[in-house]
Amino acid sequence: DELSQGQARAIEERFEPTFRRVWTDRPAVPTSDEVAGTTASTATSTHPLENENGVKVLYIAGWGRSGSTLLDTLLGQIDGFLSTGELRYVWERGVIGDWICGCQRSVKRCPLWSRVLDSVNANRDAEARKIVDWQRQATRFRHTRGLLNRTSNDLGRDGALDSYITVMQQLFAAIREATGARVIVDSSKRPSDAAALTLVPNLQLYVVHLVRDPRAVAHSWRRRQPGIDRHGVVNSTISWAAWNLMSDGVRSKLPQRSMLVQYERFVDDPRRTLTQIVELLGEDPSQVPYPHEG
To answer: What is the value of pTM for the model shown?
Structure first.
């Protein structure tokens, strides 16, 4: 199951222009004098994120097997940050699927999540299925560009999207109310979901675009893991290119509230990456814990 040198070279040659755009040429993290390079969207000036009192959300975007779980977990260790995992699945897996929370209770019986779900009237299967239906209609991957071209002035024209945005606004507000978190970390990864969140009122959305070497990602997808589908080299690489290009588009809409992080540099110096993410959000970098010694 090892990725051969020939397969690795084929990946590199086929997707070399994409590598240059979203992986090779751009810095892993912004310096103190700049934010990771993106150009402002023409829609930015009418974006609802101008509300500085809104719920602060950090969305991790990118293709799977790129280290989002590790980054999410480490961010959750910072005071005032709440790691929620892949929040987009709270309805499908948490409510309908009755998955187990980290507290070892089902999501519907977790003291925190049951309170949050009650607040948005989504603690029963019927309500959750309705939200999942809105989600599937509004945030299909192929809708990413269209969502990025919308502004808050376009709301009220799409029933499924409008309903889903309203629920997400309520969800984030309920999470902040229940936890007191200053920053809610969502590692759902899907660029279409991030694009939809740019339209949520009273939300301060920040995006970390996490990118890992596609050869390492392809190798990781070939490993067998219980309950997780495998992806072949071609499928993984095409998806890597598509998801990262769309994630790059999300960053373009949020030029002052987004950054690119290369996984390899992140694991080489995690505290530096975490510090610069915290600084991007306007939080206190002294809260970033030092790695354990010895």
So the answer is: 0.83
